[in-house]
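Table 4 source record.
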Amino acid sequence: MSYQAQQRIKRLLDVSIALVLLILTAPVLAAAVLLIRVQLGGPVFFVQERTGRWQRPFRIIKLRTMTDERDTNGELLPDGVRCRGVGRLLRKLSVDELPQLVNVLRGDLSLVGPRPLLPRYDPWYKERERIRFDVRPGITGLAQVGGRNGVPWDERLGYDVEYVTSWSLRLDLVILARTVGKVLRGSGVATDPAADMLDLDKERQLSWVRS
């Protein structure tokens, strides 16, 4: 089967699975929205700009899981402090990720692909790492099922390169199956990613200064 034919099947699977999941999880989403409204107030959704395919920006949608608590200087408190109660529960169960299925239907995301990152990281990718922009970003990916929290960015982005260069429908199905397993076990969820690893721009700045 040609690469183009496999890509068409991938898109068909993305839309079909995303639509079915949105229908099946509608009661869960409704309950989550109510809990967020009661405990955290509005807004219920967290919307943030990310860099997508061909480096085009798009707005990713998630359920809000953190408060807006700040310190005496007006700076936001660490994610681990602001994410608690219902927010921590939603992250542990990965329920906060469900609204991204709307991004899949819109064509911003695929179910599987390199995770979309912040636009401020765009200048900091190495040339080979930019291959990640040749495909749609994903809700899950090889880095999420193959790596672990806190791995260096070189390794994490290396998974993205490996995914793009060795992509097949079979690989997508393997990643999806492993993702389901991780979700059911509640493993690999970081409440405060910044506590485990530096942001890409900060890590690269630091490594370049050292070199």
